[in-house]
């Protein structure tokens, strides 16, 4: 089944006035297909979920549940504790959305799920081809209420909002989720980002994980919904003041509770589509030039105009809130309703909002809650997450960012002597009124009581631990950020070439792993020398995570041809069901101690793997000889000839096998030992000549240079130049009379560094 989402031409749920602009989609189906490809167990989990659902749909219990769900009750049947993780780039960015905007989304969700939205009057009734339909009666109260958590996983007071400054705030994906997640069995995690990365050509507004992911090892850190902040709530960055409300998060929460799109089976009006029968099947015309979905001003838009299908024995057709009919098995009826553009799970075009879940959708969500989200809705969890408590004020949670030259320094790395500004990013409760900073060892100044201290310098290199105490009316919180800042020596290594058998901390390398994996030294499976380094793979928990090593700094000033070269071995993980790995290795450089990084080379897919897929079925891949290694070489103009160049090898794990890195070399400061005539644009003019000629050449860098003339038998007959010359064009005059040379053949020999370039000249 191909999801039309992948076509990149569909439009968003809710409110887009102009079709051609700002086309956004729900990314749930695409994400789901990707995850199924990676995790065969997930396919089985989905099949089992559908089997359970279909059995339930044909039970008396189901009919009773449907009958009950038609009555709106005052108290919700289920309360769901919510945590909202807000990702933003620089301090003060509008991406750091307000608490009021978040509360507006919670209010919207509760209107959607309690059937309390003001636009329910827009639900249609009527008939199509003589068959009556009544979407007002088909809608129901889901009796689900969302509440921001009041206690965090450690039992501390919280407003249910976590704020994270991240370089990846505009690159929302499962990887980003893992950087801030609360126990997904106890909290409904919502991640709010600037944009979501789901492939080129797609503007994804949000995506969710279905409930049957629950329990999968791959899903524990990613269960929830991710939504862009322009679709979250109805004030602030989310289309301020628009009418009607944005319901993207309601749609994604529907997925998270087990609902599919009504066009799920796509291209077929005959199929059951989304597994519930009171949403009319819809057909998505994928023709990119045509609007795919209904517009609100076309109430009879009906993609499946003859959607006849066999209704099985216990299917239920509603005529009103209290009456329903059980249709007998195998009866074939004409069942023609327009597309239910009102449904939260459908897409359509125009300035009108989705406004309903159907009763069968609600029954399905309830069943999924009972099957998969039982712990979350338990009384014990509601107490421990604080959602039954009255709202109380919280002491702030300390957090900070740093900036250098007014730019956010995401990597939290800087050079000795760089002036760093600290920015208070504390959250949870009202803003802090008093601050106590300690910037750690070697800082000047050492402490500050300013909210946003500026101009802090470090006098020595090392990992710095920052302590921040923030106070508001509700109390104080002190937090120690261990190794929160890496200060690197600004002096670079200045030798002509560096070779490392393997990288070590002693030699100034920085290794970045995580709680799942750290880089290890290994003597088993090396390319050459004594040892190499290894990152063990084959863990679902690593998927989507970046691991890196950072080199010491090199001085490439005056370098001809700076380069980074290393060998690596890597195998994809075919045990996950994929034969082509999506793991990725990116080589980068920084000229400011790691404040900012630029890409030099990206290696991925089949190019990245160094052994055939068949070999990677070994859980613990070890390269057995040098043919199972590849070389990465980046050289030339893309590497800056600067005084302070660091390299980073970033490895993005997508479930692959082990990665080995060995035999690294960098260089080189002089680099003149393999030049040829073309490299220095050597010219001798005129040639042949009678008395004098000009020898011209272009030095790629300042170098010790000699220009000599030899005769045919190899005897030196003239010294034309010997000394240090600067980078650029040089010219030496050769006057044969000064050396008493007769007519004949000679050789001009230019020595630059270790290179010797020879040019034949003829005197006549
Ligand atoms: Zn969706």
User: For the CA atoms, what is the radius of gyration?
Assistant: 34 Å
CATH architecture of the largest domain, by name, is 3-Layer(aba) Sandwich
The assembly state of the depicted protein chains is: single chain
- CATH fold assignment of the largest domain: Collagenase (Catalytic Domain)
The percentage helix is 10-25%
Count of structural domains: 4
Structural class: alpha+beta
- Ions and ligands: zinc ion
| Number of strand segments | 41
Q: What summary fits the major beta sheet?
A: 7 strands, mixed
Percent of residues in β-strands? 25-35%
Overall mean confidence score, pLDDT: 82
Number of helices: 11
What is the overall silhouette?
elongated
CATH homologous superfamily designation of the largest domain: Collagenase (Catalytic Domain)
The first-level CATH class of the largest domain is given as Alpha Beta
Low-confidence stretches: 1-23, 287-292, 309-314, 327-334
Terminal Cα span:
82 Å
Describe the structure in your own words.
Helix 1 packs across helix 2 and helix 3 (60-69) packs across helix 8. Strands 1, 2, 5, 6, 7, 8 and 9 form a 7-stranded mixed sheet that branches. Strands 24, 26, 27, 29, 32 and 34 form a 6-stranded antiparallel sheet that branches. The N and C termini lie far apart (82 Å). A hairpin with a 2-residue loop joins strand 3 (125-128) and strand 4 (131-134). The radius of gyration is 34 Å and the shape is elongated. By secondary structure, the chain is an alpha+beta fold. The protein is 13% helix and 30% strand. The longest helix is centred in the N-terminal third of the chain and has 18 residues, at 40-57. It has 4 domains: 4-384, Collagenase (Catalytic Domain); 400-488, Immunoglobulin-like, CATH 2.60.40; 497-667, Sandwich (Jelly Rolls), CATH 2.60.120; 683-763, Immunoglobulin-like (Sandwich). The protein contains 11 helices and 41 strands. Residues 26, 28, 251, 255, 261 line the site of zinc ion. The site of zinc ion (ZN) has 5 residues, from helix 7.
């Amino acid at each position: 089944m191909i999801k039309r989402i992948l076509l990149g031409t569909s439009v968003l749920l809710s409110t887009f006035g102009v079709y051609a602009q700002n086309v956004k989609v729900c990314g749930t189906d695409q994400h789901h297909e990707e995850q199924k490809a990676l995790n065969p167990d997930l396919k089985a989990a989905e099949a089992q979920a559908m089997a359970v659902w279909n059995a339930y749909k044909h039970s008396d219990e189901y009919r009773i549940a449907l009958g009950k769900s038609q009555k709106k009750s005052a108290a919700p049947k289920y309360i769901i504790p919510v945590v909202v993780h807000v990702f933003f780039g620089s301090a003060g960015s509008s991406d750091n959305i307000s608490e009021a905007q978040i509360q507006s989304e919670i209010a919207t969700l509760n209107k959607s799920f309690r059937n309390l939205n003001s636009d329910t009057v827009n639900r249609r009734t009527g008939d199509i081809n003589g068959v009556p339909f009544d979407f007002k009666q088909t809608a129901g109260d889901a009796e689900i209420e969302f509440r921001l958590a009041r206690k965090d996983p450690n039992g501390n007071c919280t407003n249910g909002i976590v704020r994270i400054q991240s370089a990846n705030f505009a690159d929302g994906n499962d990887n980003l989720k893992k950087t801030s997640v609360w126990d997904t069995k106890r909290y409904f995690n919502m991640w709010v980002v600037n944009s979501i990365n789901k492939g080129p050509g797609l503007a994804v507004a949000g995506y969710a994980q279905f409930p049957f992911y629950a329990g999968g090892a791959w899903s524990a850190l990613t269960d929830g919904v991710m939504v862009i902040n322009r679709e979250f709530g109805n004030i602030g960055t989310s289309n301020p003041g628009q009418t009607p409300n944005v319901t993207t998060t309601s749609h994604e929460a529907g997925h998270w509770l087990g609902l599919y799109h009504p066009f799920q089976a796509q291209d077929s009006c005959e199929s059951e589509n989304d597994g519930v029968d009171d949403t009319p099947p819809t057909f998505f015309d994928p023709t990119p030039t045509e609007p795919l979905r209904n517009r609100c001003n076309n109430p009879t838009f009906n993609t499946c105009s003859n959607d006849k299908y066999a209704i099985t024995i216990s299917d239920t057709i509603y005529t009103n809130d209290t009456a329903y009919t059980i249709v007998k098995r195998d009866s074939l009826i004409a069942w023609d309703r327009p597309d239910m553009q009102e449904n939260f799970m459908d897409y359509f075009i125009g300035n009108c909002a989705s406004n309903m879940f159907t009763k069968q959708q609600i029954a399905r969500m309830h069943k999924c809650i009972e099957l998969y989200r039982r712990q979350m809705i338990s009384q014990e969890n509601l107490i421990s997450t604080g959602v039954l408590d009255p709202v109380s004020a919280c002491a702030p949670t300390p957090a900070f960012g740093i900036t250098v030259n007014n730019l956010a320094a995401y990597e939290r790395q800087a050079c000795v002597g760089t002036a760093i500004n600290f920015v208070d990013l504390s959250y949870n409760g009202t803003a802090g009124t008093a601050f106590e900073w300690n910037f750690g060892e070697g800082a000047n100044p050492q402490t500050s009581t300013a909210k946003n201290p500026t101009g802090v310098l470090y006098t020595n290199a090392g990992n710095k631990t920052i302590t921040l105490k923030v106070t508001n009316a509700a109390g104080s919180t002190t937090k120690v950020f261990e190794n929160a800042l890496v200060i690197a020596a600004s002096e670079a290594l200045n030798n002509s070439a560096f070779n490392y058998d393997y990288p070590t901390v002693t030699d100034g390398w920085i290794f970045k792993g995580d709680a799942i994996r750290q880089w290890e030294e290994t003597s088993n499976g090396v390319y050459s020398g004594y040892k190499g380094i290894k990152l063990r793979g084959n863990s679902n928990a690593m998927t989507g995570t970046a691991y890196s090593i950072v080199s010491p700094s090199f001085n490439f000033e005056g370098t001809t041809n700076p380069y980074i070269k290393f060998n690596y071995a890597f195998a994809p993980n075919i045990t996950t069901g994929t034969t082509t790995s999506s793991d990725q290795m990116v080589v980068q450089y920084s000229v400011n101690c790691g404040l900012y990084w630029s890409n030099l080379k990206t290696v991925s897919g089949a190019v990245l793997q160094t052994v055939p897929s068949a070999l990677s079925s070994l859980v613990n891949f070890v390269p057995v000889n040098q043919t199972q290694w590849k070389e990465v070489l980046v050289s030339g103009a893309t590497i800056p000839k600067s005084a302070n160049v660091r390299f980073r090898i970033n490895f993005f794990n997508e479930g692959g096998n082990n990665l080995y890195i060995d035999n690294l070399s960098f260089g080189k400061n002089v680099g003149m030992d393999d030049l040829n005539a073309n490299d220095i644009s050597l010219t001798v003019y005129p040639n042949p000549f009678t008395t004098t000629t000009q020898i011209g050449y272009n030095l790629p860098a300042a170098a010790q240079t000699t220009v000599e003339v030899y005769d045919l038998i190899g005897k030196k007959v003239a010294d034309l130049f010997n000394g240090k010359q600067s980078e650029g064009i040089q010219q030496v005059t050769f006057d044969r009379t000064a050396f008493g040379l007769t007519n004949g053949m000679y050789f001009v020999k230019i020595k630059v560094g270790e290179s010797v370039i020879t040019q034949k000249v003829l005197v006549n």
